[in-house]
Write a structure and sequence with these properties.
Elements lengths: L8 H8 L7 H7 L4 E5 L2 E4 L4 E4 L2 H4 L8 H13 L12 H13 L6 E5 L2 H18 L7 E5 L8 H6 L3 H4 L9 E4 L14 H19 L4 E6 L15 H11 L3 E5 L13 H5 L5 E4 L11 E5 L1 H10 L16 H17 L1 H22 L3 E7 L2 E6 L15 H11 L2 E2 L1 E3 L2 E4 L7 H29 L1
Parallel strand pairs: 3-13, 5-6, 5-7, 7-8, 8-9
Antiparallel strand pairs: 1-2, 2-3, 4-10, 9-10, 11-12, 12-15, 14-15
Helix pairs in contact: 4-13, 5-13, 6-12, 9-10, 14-16, 15-16
The structure holds pyridoxal-5'-phosphate.
The site of pyridoxal-5'-phosphate has 16 residues, from helix 6.
Amino acid sequence: MPTPPPNSAEARDVLFHLHSQTNAQAHAERGPLIMERGEGIHVFDSHGRKYVEAMAGLWCTSLGFSHARLKRAAAEAYDRFGFYHTFNHKTPAATIDLAERLVAMGPIPEAQAYFATSGSEATETMVKLAWVYHAVRGKPTKRKVISRDRGFHGSTIVAASMCGLPRMHREFGLPLPGFLHTLCPDPYRGPQPGEDISAFVARLADSLEAMILEEGADTIAAFIAEPINAGGGIIVPPAGYFPAIEAVLRRHDILVLGDEVVCGFGRTGEMWGATTTGMTPDMIAMAKGISSSYFPISAVLLSKPIQDALARMNEGGEIFGHGFTNSGHPVGVAVALETLAVYREMDVVAHTQRMGARLRAGLDAIAARSGIVGQVRGAGLMIGVELVADPATKTAFDPALKAGARFDAAALANGLVIRPMGDTIGLCPPLIIDEAGIDEILSLFDRTLAEVERDLPKSRLAAE
Ligand SMILES: Cc1ncc(COP(=O)(O)O)c(C=O)c1O
């Protein structure tokens, strides 16, 4: 890339702005991609180039990038109230409406809702509530948390500790002590030679139980999982996985925490990822789709036994020492209520099933013609395409070839935004997408894959 003029937006970005999840050196060399505006499922960069945003930003803008009703809901909420909070018995009125609505639609009976502003705050809140739950029941030593390899739960210290991705730990001396990781239920790469899926599931449950016994069940508070792992490569657990591991967890009085930050609100073709995968959590964390990310808002739903424990904690008159300034912010709440109204009117679950089936069928057809697709997987509008050197043997590409990063660059050049996770290409478009939008993704994906496939064999040889 030619060196940008010194006071261009590109040069100022490199100088003044530290980016999330970005290599600083590569950023200094290639500069930013500056996005300026959005229209439905499309975004436009500062040079006026148009892209299909097939990742809904960060798995989040379910209603696209320019939804008039969400903008109006925010503007009207600002007219009424720029801010109010939920500390010390106070609350904005609309926050009560959202709590009631989430409890009515959520997968946990008789739940209560707690509000925060990010997914990380929501997953960490669940950990603190799990600690209280056990302590109040006379089990204060139950503190450890088990999560899974390749999982993602956020970037704050406890949330990052629960991630199962090396980049979330490496430079930070994480995970914290007491944050353990069990096997990832990847049906493509996980089974050992000759092991069928039910034996694989049994091994996952056995290995979880072995970890619990070795650590001591009296030291373990909770297990956290996304119903379908998003950031680790869109991994759908095999049938029977959650029932098998939940049986182990219940046996040892360990809470089940569901991270619905990506999967919630229709993404997987059901309202909740828990329904898609047969998970029965004691608490769930949600964010992103709750407001289509037009305002930072997240929430936790907690079951009745956890509410009862909290009530007992406060029996001496102490207050619940937890809260965020912007918990239940009236503008975020108004945007979330409007988002949920739109989901209901568009019948988001049925629509996602229809559009997801079209995307999946198209990708399956492309994969059948390609020599470098190992697996197409996912649910609803959350689909991963794993690129491999040899689909017959599942042989992965040499990591030095950076097949996923090549696909990313080629896709961007073609006007398609995807998410490479290693060599798995993630697609998670806005849920408002229609047939024409799906076909546009498919055509750009097809072209990109053909280009990458043409390019890679040469590099494959060069690497040998
Ligand atoms: C499954 C999951 N949980 C938690 C988070 C953290 O959310 P946030 O970035 O809002 O803190 C993310 C973010 O991508 C996520 O994908």
